[in-house]
Design brief:
The chain is mainly alpha-helical and about 450 residues long. The chain has one domain (about 10-450). It has helices spanning about 5-10, 15-50, 55-65, 75-90, 95-120, 125-130, 140-160, 160-165, 170-195, 200-225, 240-275, 275-310, 315-350, 360-385, 390-415, 415-425, 430-440. α7 runs parallel beside α10, α13 packs antiparallel against α14 and α15 (about 390-415) runs antiparallel to α16 (about 415-425). The relative contact order is 0.12.
């Protein structure tokens, strides 16, 4: 009898209620991210035609430098995600509203101070020296930095609505914000290419403002409809709850700091050891390969809060079955990455033509790093869902202390390749320790540092 594809699809959406909810959102998000990937690929040749490779590299490096300021979130977003998921699982709407109101209040105060400080110091910064370029004047770079930073702060504040959606296990809706913002940006950039000459200021204004605009609109829509009962209110601000949010949030804060150093600093270090064209080459290669990790991230996104829910309900059977399935999926993703590496020269040729040369060895190092990431990712999702981050903080502290000196050492010896190579070495402790901790947690054998 010939298998009916429709039956396979229907069977896929059967099983445990928690798993079915995750699968539905994965399916929706894959569609949305498919749009995002196509848009992301379309951006590169469009921007390269609008700007030269030097200015494109400047944009990428400056964006990375500005991203360092995301640590002012002090982990509150992820702290809210876990605490809110627990409050929703227990049906405590008042507590959920209190957590949300308090988080908005704290971040509002913090970001207001940050933007004022930036307005004061920005005119004093020599952006040409910071970005290692003379292609653009310091005055223009300062204007671009101000635009990017202002909209970055707005986006970072209003993206809390995404945290609420993630805590409620609705990641597909949260993941729709990115593609909508990207499509809007792409449309405006396309119009600019037809009506204006290349301008770094125009590019920064469009790429920074469109995502922020989408999040602002989404915040008002959802807090007036789906989450009206959770809408932030000054009457529900309870700073005594900040300790509860921050105790977990500070742990995520250290993880965020590490992410900023490892990823954002990479562009900066490559620019120091090479040039902005190499920064562009690295980012294009990373964008191409990361589409596979992006798909995996989509699959894993609902599992963070689902793990929190399962832990609250002591559903360890579901946890054990889920981690096994995700580990098999990690192997499949690694195979896809290897295939992407093999065909990369043809993809680059078709994608960007002769505008930029991308070394196969650079692509190889990035591939190996991303393979490490896909094997670590399921365990990170489980550990985050459990909120047991103390061991991770110790490991990340060591990574941070090692990364910059190692990057400088290898960068001096191998240039840009050495900077990327250092990312491979610092992941080794996580590959060993995160699986051990995860299996201890789901088998209820975690004690001491493994359970903190």
């Amino acid at each position: 009898m010939t298998p009916n594809p429709k039956n396979h699809i229907l069977n896929f959406f059967k099983g445990h209620e928690r798993s079915v909810k995750a699968k539905k959102h994965i399916a929706y998000t894959l569609f949305l991210k498919g749009i995002s990937i196509v848009v992301g690929f379309a951006f590169v040749p469009l921007i390269l035609n609008y700007l030269d490779t030097e200015r494109y590299g400047i944009w990428l490096t400056l964006s990375s430098v500005i991203a360092w300021f995301s640590f002012f979130d002090i982990g509150l977003g992820n702290g809210l995600r876990n605490r809110l998921a627990e409050a929703i699982a227990s049906g405590d709407e008042k507590l959920a509203k209190t957590y949300i109101s308090t988080t908005y209040a704290i971040l509002g105060i913090v970001f207001s101070i940050v933007i004022v400080v930036f307005l004061i110091i920005n005119p004093l910064l020599n952006w040409q020296k910071i970005l290692n370029t003379t292609a653009v004047s310091t005055k223009e770079l300062g204007t671009v930095a101000l635009i990017v930073f202002a909209f970055f702060i707005l986006r970072f504040f209003f993206k809390l609505i995404g945290t609420v959606l993630l805590a409620d296990q609705r990641p597909a809706i949260n993941n729709a914000f990115g593609p909508v913002g990207s499509l809007l940006s792409l449309l405006i950039i396309y119009i600019l290419t037809k009506t204006t000459t290349g301008s770094l200021i125009n590019l920064a204004a469009v790429l920074s403002s469109a995502p922020a605009f989408v999040l602002i609109v989404a915040t008002f829509v959802f807090f007036h409809r789906d989450y009206k009962r959770y809408a932030p209110s000054y009457k529900f601000i309870d700073l005594s709850k900040s300790k509860d949010l921050l105790s977990l949030g500070f742990k995520f804060f250290f993880i965020q700091i590490a992410a900023i150093i490892f990823f954002s600093t990479t562009n900066f270090l490559i620019a120091q050891f090479s040039n902005q064209e190499t920064v562009a080459a690295y980012n294009i290669a990373y964008k191409y390969l990361y589409m596979i990790n992006m798909v995996y991230a989509i699959i894993l996104t609902p599992f963070w809060s689902a793990v929190t829910d399962a832990k609250a309900k002591k559903d360890y059977k579901w946890l054990k079955a889920t981690i096994k399935k995700l580990n098999i999926l990690s192997l499949l993703m690694a195979v896809f990455l290897i295939f992407a590496l093999i065909i990369s020269p043809w993809v680059y040729k078709l994608w960007i033509g002769d505008k930029l040369q991308i070394s196969f060895y650079l692509t190889l190092i990035i591939t190996l790093y991303l393979i490490q990431q896909v094997f670590i990712a399921p365990f990170s999702a489980f550990i985050n869902g459990f909120g047991k981050l103390k061991l991770g903080i110790y490991v990340i502290t060591v990574k941070v202390l090692i990364f910059v000196p190692l990057s400088l050492l290898l960068g001096n010896k191998f240039g840009a390749f050495g900077v990327v190579l250092s990312l491979l070495f610092i992941q080794l402790p996580s590959i060993i320790l995160e699986p051990i901790q995860t299996f201890k947690l789901i088998n209820q054998k975690a004690k001491g540092i493994w359970n903190k």
